Amino acid sequence: MLNADCRHDPRWLCRDGSTVSGPKDQLPPHSLLPGKMLWRSLLVATISSHPWLLTPALRTLSLIAHPRLSFLDVNKNAILRGILKTTFYNHFCAGEKAAEVTGTIDRIKHMGFRGVILTYAREIVVDASSQKVNNPTTNNEKANAQTTKSPEVEAWRQGVLETVEMVGTDDFLALKLTGADPQVMHALSSNQPLPEQMIFALQDVCTRAIERNTRIFVDAEQQSVQSGIDAVALDLMRRYNRNGTAVVYNTYQAYLKSTPENLLSHLGIADKEGFTLGVKLVRGAYINSEPRHLINDTKQGTDDSYNAIAAGILRRQYGFFGVERQFPSAELFLATHNKESALAADSLYKERLATGQPTTKVQYGQLLGMADEVSCRLLQLRDDSSQAAQKASPEVYKCLSWGTLGDCVSYLLRRAVENRDAVGRTKQEYYALKTEARRRIKNMFSLRW
Which cofactor does it need (predicted)? Predict the structure, then answer.
């Protein structure tokens, strides 16, 4: 139990003393990984943790993502396609076809994960900074944009609806709004209403997701469009997050200076209008962000922000909510690769349940192929001894992207860059995977004797 002074300081979430320790005879977290996943993870971690391997790998992936020569095009080079598909693609992605995706999902759930977060990998490349927010638009241009059907929006709608059919009860569908077309990007960057076709597409997607008991994440994107995305997410929550349940979640990036105040504002809107605020909390990526927007240029600054927000929502005390005014209806999803944050949040949640204090429903998620030590450690905390213990056990998800190999190359490149930027965590994962591989080899030879 933490002392009173520690509990009132949200930074306690970062401290080693707050993490949950398991039995001494408990197997390491990576022991939960199936054999094929373990060896593939070790291969990727070996490359990611050694600069002399990662640097050429990044250059190669970048060339493949933007091929100028036919032999670098995965759609034309069968050998290159085979190598990439059986290694990086299968490690980070769910599959190219529905059968592959559902097979991956079944394997993930068989490991003990509560469910998956599935996203359609198709993207468009648009320079948001070139979208003129104050660019005057005539009435005729607006009318044409509303009446002209965009094949890109229709392709996005069909792809996302196909994604919905692959997920089931309690899974999540992740929406990347800028994956539709440039008109949608322009509307978001200029805080204008979405094209009518896109509005109807979102309605179709949400309706079908609800029919399949699937929830929805609205992904955060670059700062030039984030205000517009927030507005769309709030509109969806007004419509679908009723009766104390979150169907739609907005994404909040802890590394931005504006996030604490932005979240407080959204809690106020939810309180006033009577809907449940779905909060997906991520640390965020520094790519395409101006320094003036960053909460801190150090990892610790972002960690402190992330943990303070998480602790406030779990305690149901954030800003003046929970003190001067009743805390509104909310649900929390912690998307984090930081083990200390995840374990400490789980500890705080269980502590409040055990002492009868109000708290917020929380779930956890990590990307497929990354932070398996975090995911598996949370899975090891599951307690099926009683109904109350099951309720307090962490519900863990894996985030998957699906699409053709060509569609996913840019996604694979981003994952590789993330591994490069998270040097400490990548090396830690590499050593843990190597230790687990040695343990299994040793056990295998022991059984033979």
Answer: FAD
